Structure formats: C-alpha cells, structure tokens
C-alpha cells in the first residue's frame, strides 16, 4: 500500500476532527457548525473558500503551480441521519435523535486530509475543487449545489465521489462501470372508501380490502412486467388504516419505495403502479390518489473515468485489493445528479466488519444506517491518499483519456 506519507502523520489530528463531527451531527441543510469547521480548516491551509452553495455547502479551490486547463472535482457529503445513536463511547452523538450513521463525518475527514496535502504541496498543474455537500440523505443537496452554480461558477471537468462500505475489508475498494447504485423513488397511495360499522360492512365501502389486494398485486410488477435481466425492487414499507377494532375506516394509505438501475424500467414500474392503483381501487368501489416521487436517478459511472480510477487504485493498494466489477447496490445516492452533469466515478472504500469500534459501541452491527455504526478512522489516510493520487494523475494526463 503506497500511502501519502504526510497524511499518515496527520491521521490522529484528522481523526480528532472526524470524531468531533460525529459527536455533533447535523441534519440536511442544518450543517452550519460542520460547514464552519470545514471552511475554517480549508482557510487555515490557504485554500480559497466559497460558501452557501446548496445552503450550507462549501467549495474549496486549490490551484496548482500553473494552469494547464485541467480541473477535477472531489466530493464528500456532510449531513447526518435523524436517528438515535446507541453507542456510548466518548465521541458518540451529543444531539438526541441525530447520528452520523452513514459515515459522512469520515467522508468529510478524508477529503479534508487530501485538501491539506494538495494545498501545502501544490505539486500539480491545473485546479482541484474540493466539494463538501449538504443534505445527501434524501434531501437532494447535490441538486441544490448544482442549481446554485456548482458547475457554472467552477469549471469542473470531471467529478469523483467515494463512500465507505461496511463488510468490505479495510484496504479494499469496490467499483464498476455503469450503475453502481440504484435510483431512489418513493410512492404514496391514498384509497378512499366509505366508513361503516365493522358488523355492517355492506353499509360501507372498505378501503382496507382494496389496499391489501393492491399490496399483493404490486409485487406482480417486478415478476411479470420487468425484464428479469434488469434488476428492480418494489417494497411497500407502510400501511396505515383505521383507529378502532369495530370501525371500517374511510381511508387507507400505502407507502413504499422503488429502486432500479435504469430509467426505462422505472418508467414501466411507475406506469404499472398507477394503473393497478386506480383499477383495483375502482374494482372495490373506492377512489384513489397516487403520488410518485423520483428522488435520485441511478448512480452511473462513466467508463473512461472509472478505468482511470481503477488504475489509480491498483497502483495505490495493489490489484488484489480492487474489485473493478463489484456487485451494485440497490441503495441510492444523490451524487448521481453530479454524474449526470459531468463525467466521473463513484466507488466504495472498505470500512471493515466493525472490529475497530471502541468499547461502548452498541450491540448492533457496524452497518450503514444502524444505531451501532461508527466510521473506521483507519480509512482516513487510505481514502485521502486516493484523492491526492487521483487528482495529481488526472491533472497530469492529456485531455484524450
């Protein structure tokens, strides 16, 4: 493993920043303290700082020794999740109901370490843009930064992202060409019938019967309407109806999520949900309202940029530690929106099995969005070294990569 030596020397210092961020998690568009810390650190290293993109986003501009017309964007997310942490170690969350359960504190720390090295050495030509994004967890912070001029104010040629991945061993990376994460979409169905006494169901119109039959029918979309070679998930996650044991309610509500790797399959699923919602509801004498929210598109890696990243990784950690055909995940990521604007690559860095956690961690596994999760600080010099080597080599490469 060929890590950048100065970054290894800063590991404890950067880890202390990471743990401070973990102890003070902030939710989407509320990352004020976090962005203050990021901006202050960048400025202390002589980096030009721009704030306010996407409300609380931060962009640092690091020019090299000369301008060769090349540029690169490196992105980290900053927001936490609205969940209670079960860990009790010293850097556990001090904010009730808020937790860095996805490792965005670690992503921020890795990019800070890389920015420090790049600013202090400037051993490259061109410009590195370090992007600290708010509101990745379901609130589309990437779109807000783009709308606020991320790619118009800053001439970013290509953009790259990275996420820690539990179960993947430390020192290993996973990446693939094409979709690496799915689109993230949510639907709500509200079925309206006519309430009645449960002992006299013939006097009403039962929305629960329509809802339960709809819940079963929706699963046929994935098994009968989707190309079996194009993965998709349709999960009903909530059903709400009624308030008493002897009352047929007026309404029933279903909510859920759809995940796909292609827009074409997503179009089919949305259309079929809509058709089944209205036909089944009508068949039971009810009416229905249907809403479908396309939150994030699939995260699709570009071939040339992915091949470039893979070569950097192989030289950094060895070919045996790089899975360049990793199995994609059905989770979603709003970095997908940046990849629709600029070519680039998004990859996973192994966070291990959880053995790194200090005494006082919760009883749950060290998986993403789990109350016992904690980022592995061993990743800081590994991830930061990747960022540095990627930026230096990208900026030194001819345009026709």
Assembly state of the chains shown: single chain
Strand content: 15-25%
Task: Report the biggest beta sheet as strand number plus sense, adding barrel if it closes.
Answer: 8 strands, mixed
End-to-end Cα distance, whole Å, is: 25 Å
The CATH class assignment of the largest domain is: Alpha Beta
Mean pLDDT: 97
Tell me the strand order in the biggest sheet.
1-2-4-3-5-16-6-15
The count of domains is: 2
Number of H/I helices = 11
Q: CATH H level of the largest domain: which superfamily?
A: Zn peptidases
The tally of strands reads 16
The helix content is 25-40%
The geometry reads as elongated
What fold name stands as the CATH topology of the largest domain? Aminopeptidase
Radius of gyration equals 24 Å
Q: From the 3D coordinates, which CATH architecture of the largest domain would you assign?
A: 3-Layer(aba) Sandwich
Order of helix and strand elements from N to C terminus: HHHEEEHEHHEEEEEHEEEHEEHEHEH
* Alpha-beta classification: alpha/beta
Model regions low in confidence, pLDDT < 50 over at least 5 residues: none
Protein name: Amidohydrolase
Cofactor: Mn(2+)
Organism: Pollutimonas harenae
GO molecular function, one term: N-acetyldiaminopimelate deacetylase activity
